[in-house]
Amino acid sequence: MPSSNVAPPIQAIKELPLPAYESGKLDNGMELYMLRGGSEPVMRMEIVFRAGATYEKKSGVAEFMAGLMSEGTRSMNSAALAETIESLGATLFTRGGVDTARVRLLTLTRFFPDLIGVVREVINAPAFDPGELKVYADNKVERLKIDLKKNEVLAYRHLTEAIFGQAHPYGKNVFPEDYLGITIEDLMNHHARHIIPQNGMVLVSGLFGDKEINQIRETIGTWNPNHNNGSEEVVLFPAGGKTGYFEFDGPQVHQAAIRIGRRLFPQSHPDFNGLFVLNTILGGYFGSRLMMEIRENQGLTYGIYSSVDSFASDGCFYISTETATDNTAKVIEAIHQEMLRLQQELIEEEELDMARNYLMGHLMSQIDGPFSTMDFIKSLKIEHLEDSAFAAMVDTIQQITPNQLRELAVKYLDPSDWVTIVVK
User: Fold this and answer.
1) What structural domains does the chain harbor?
2) pTM for the complete prediction?
3) Which of 6, 209, 222, 230 has the fewest Cβ atoms within 10 Å of its own Cβ atom?
4) DSSP code per residue over 242-269
């Protein structure tokens, strides 16, 4: 039978439910979220604390505290802790961000009983060794010095500072002298105030059973540190942010880094989902308008994208690209024209359908497998969102109209409301 060259029809994704998961509470009050699945005997446990930069009293402390939690405990130095983890083929890392500090263990399920006590010690009794602090600080300073020689890094730092303000944790920049000024006492104070049960949640995913959950209840669930003197703080910051054009000298004189942005709001805002779709059309994927016009048609850049970012208590919308220094004005003008087009013209249904299909595929990838799905659930919990937020996003992607998108563009894409940062 002769083969056919006709491609099979593309089937659009119309329904996409969030996979069901279990939830409970440990005896010490920590929320517990569980998602069983997978074909391999592997599981992941992540403990998340509201203990990020939003809550720190001194720049860089939250990041350092989280990073050093896995660099030794009171009973194991850094080498012994690493050897214990690696000898069982597991990985353990600790990270700090703007909103949270996280401890993540990935292990074969059969070794979980040997490691759960280690994780408890990591969160409850980190050593905060002065020698480890010096090594960690020196490494961070060297990496930061390298980053500060890049125009794109400087542009993003200037952008977030302009959008949120220097006093806002999402706009505050850290400098080498901040890292070098962090002390053991700073780490211990932040840990004592914020690494406590009422600030934490436990998320378990992969192939596990009631045995492993009971072990969590008997170890993490019975953890009640005697320094339980803090609580999750409601952090409010004033509205505001700069608008206009700001230019800075950068170390790379032949290439300009351009960042254009504005302050938004958390994902719980009623306009967020619509802006998520609008952003995709503007610059959120390879077929976006910014890519087609500025990269493909005008050849002014190798890449350009836009992003709607949300955090626990705020958010922003920004556009990023790099171009030859002489093309800076042309690129900015082309960006403004694409923003104005979305305000003035209705999006064609064919273009909107392409964005819908892309976004549905993107959401499907975010809930592909227990680990990815739990990462999505974690984001919902960190940003104080209900599970219904996922269905609401799917509904918006499927149902939003060209008129609604134009209304959002009029409301949020006026270039005069945005700040433009150029480092060249």
Assistant:
1) 22-222 (3.30.830.10), 244-423 (3.30.830.10)
2) 0.91
3) 6
4) --EEEEE--S-TTEEEEEEEEE---TTS
